[in-house]
Amino acid sequence: MLDRSLMLCRATPDNMDSIVRLIEDRAHWLRTQQTDQWAQPWPSRAERDKRILEHIHAEKTWIIEHASMIVATITADPEADPHWPEPERLDPAVYIHRLVVGLPFAGVELGAQLLDWAGRLATGEYGARWLRVNAWTTNDRLHAYYSRQGFEHFGQAVDNGHDPGARD
Q1: Partners of residue 63 on adjacent β-strands
Q2: Are 150 and 143 in contact (CB under 8 A)?
Q3: DSSP symbol at 60
Q4: Are strands 93-101 and 130-135 parallel, antiparallel or unpaired?
């Protein structure tokens, strides 16, 4: 369970700048890890930020705060991801987007705890059978991480102008 000094709460529009900064800090780190994940906002910074804000307004984005600072974020969306094949979109699932843990909290299982929490949310609040994540195609370490968390590889998206992602 989360450490008592960490607080999970829904993100608000006031958190937008902190969420973007968290994503950009992690993107900067990713550029040092032999992956092209998040090399640039997709398809543009404005479009990425618009998606983030839409998820915040729809109350699908959550943050973890520690000492009044946002240290992690996750978006749990019960609406079918249009990039998944249709048969799977018909099966109740919660789709995880932008699971980001700040570097000072890397390695303390905060991401794993957020995935567990999202799984409980998926079944308890939405009656979902699946928790689904998209993992960047070239980020082998991320694929291994999700495998360690119990996810199974599902397939790979066809390049349709969307950011590349293997389906887990």
Answers
A1: 9, 73
A2: no
A3: -
A4: parallel
